[in-house]
């Protein structure tokens, strides 16, 4: 149940859960048990006010592990000429060691305090990315919805990662993290036809009737990335200024924005899926097993695209990085530099 108000996004679906939104000056409370412990990025739900169940979140993060913890295949090239910034000592990374993620997952590094503009180029130089096969990519400073300017820098290629790519991230002189890119999966939601088409490895194979945000509480438009997922999330409309519109647990919740947008099971979809948009901003799936099947199929990093709606989700609202063109992405880099996957 995501919610948005006209020009103000608030997450949620009718009797369903927290809604994706950006209420003026308000943010839903995210009581994320396992999720909060797992996620290094502080991405509190602002839409469907969410509280995770005891279930495990699938997007574990944290400080990068010392390179001694795992054999490193990171670049053996000489260290940058500039001194290593102190900010890297407390940096956190959004992808867990050894994880397999979807083709849309950016590398996102966050800091407990803003990095001054004068130090950002040095930070980029000391964040090394090596890929097999080689991939061109670049760092870009993103204004995270819940953080201050200078507290988050992301890395992405010009287009989605290629399936099977192996990635090694070096954070400063010691810390190293390894992960890989799984198969390609994109789910495209057309709010005008009330359908979601799932494409895996380039082949559209599933068309699912859905419900989306009703007029005035429209689902975010644009490209989002699965941040994490939980079998059960508590959503409370009171945390996003919608009174008693909804509150309760909603199952098979796939999290796509910090403001609270989810793709989740919604009983209203049993009646309206494929026919009308009636949620507070989230995408709802039927209770006949449809929602659970989609939940079990996706992984963090998979791409969720919404077409035919209104306001485009911002880069820092979850992983909205792909809504920027490559030239726009480079414009927010301190070095204006794209590497070759080193």
Automatic annotation (TrEMBL):
Residues 185-307 form the L,D-TPase catalytic domain. Pathway: Cell wall biogenesis; peptidoglycan biosynthesis. InterPro entries: Big_10 (IPR041280), LD-transpeptidase (IPR050979), LD_TPept_cat_dom (IPR005490), Transpep_catalytic_dom (IPR038063). CDD domains: YkuD_like. Residues 1-29, 58-78 are annotated as: Disordered. The active site is at 264 (proton donor/acceptor), 282 (nucleophile). Keywords: Acyltransferase, Cell shape, Cell wall biogenesis/degradation, Peptidoglycan synthesis, Transferase. PROSITE patterns: LD_TPASE (PS52029). The keyword Cell wall biogenesis/degradation applies. This is L,D-transpeptidase.
């Amino acid at each position: 149940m995501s919610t948005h108000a006209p020009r103000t996004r608030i997450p949620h679906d009718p009797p369903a859960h927290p809604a994706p939104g950006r209420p003026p000056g308000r943010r839903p409370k995210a009581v994320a048990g396992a999720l909060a412990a797992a996620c290094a990025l502080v991405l509190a739900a602002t839409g469907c006010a969410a509280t995770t169940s005891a279930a495990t979140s699938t997007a574990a993060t944290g400080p990068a592990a010392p390179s001694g913890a795992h054999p490193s295949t990171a670049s053996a090239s000489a260290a940058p000429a500039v001194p290593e910034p102190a900010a890297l000592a407390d940096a956190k990374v959004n992808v867990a060691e050894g994880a397999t993620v979807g083709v849309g997952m950016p590398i996102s590094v966050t800091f407990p305090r803003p990095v001054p503009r004068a130090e950002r180029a040095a930070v980029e130089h000391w964040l090394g990315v090596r890929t097999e096969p080689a991939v061109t990519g670049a760092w870009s400073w993103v204004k995270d919805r819940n953080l201050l300017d200078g507290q988050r820098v992301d890395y992405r290629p010009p287009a989605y990662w290629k399936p099977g790519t192996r990635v090694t991230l070096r954070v400063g002189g010691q810390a190293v993290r390894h992960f890989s890119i799984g198969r390609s999966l994109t789910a495209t939601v057309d709010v005008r036809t009330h359908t979601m088409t799932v494409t895996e490895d380039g082949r559209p194979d599933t068309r699912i009737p859905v419900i989306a945000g009703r007029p005035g509480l429209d689902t975010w438009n644009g490209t989002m990335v699965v941040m994490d997922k939980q079998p059960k999330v508590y959503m409370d409309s009171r945390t996003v200024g919608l009174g008693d519109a909804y509150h309760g647990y909603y199952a098979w919740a796939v999290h796509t924005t910090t403001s609270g947008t989810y793709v989740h099971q919604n009983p209203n979809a049993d009646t309206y899926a494929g026919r009308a948009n009636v949620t507070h901003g989230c995408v709802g799936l039927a209770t006949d097993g449809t929602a659970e099947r989609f939940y079990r199929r996706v992984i963090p990093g998979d791409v969720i695209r919404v077409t035919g709606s209104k306001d485009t989700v911002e880069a820092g609202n979850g992983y909205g990085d792909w809504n920027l063109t490559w030239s726009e992405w480079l414009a927010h880099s301190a070095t204006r530099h794209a590497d070759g996957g080193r």
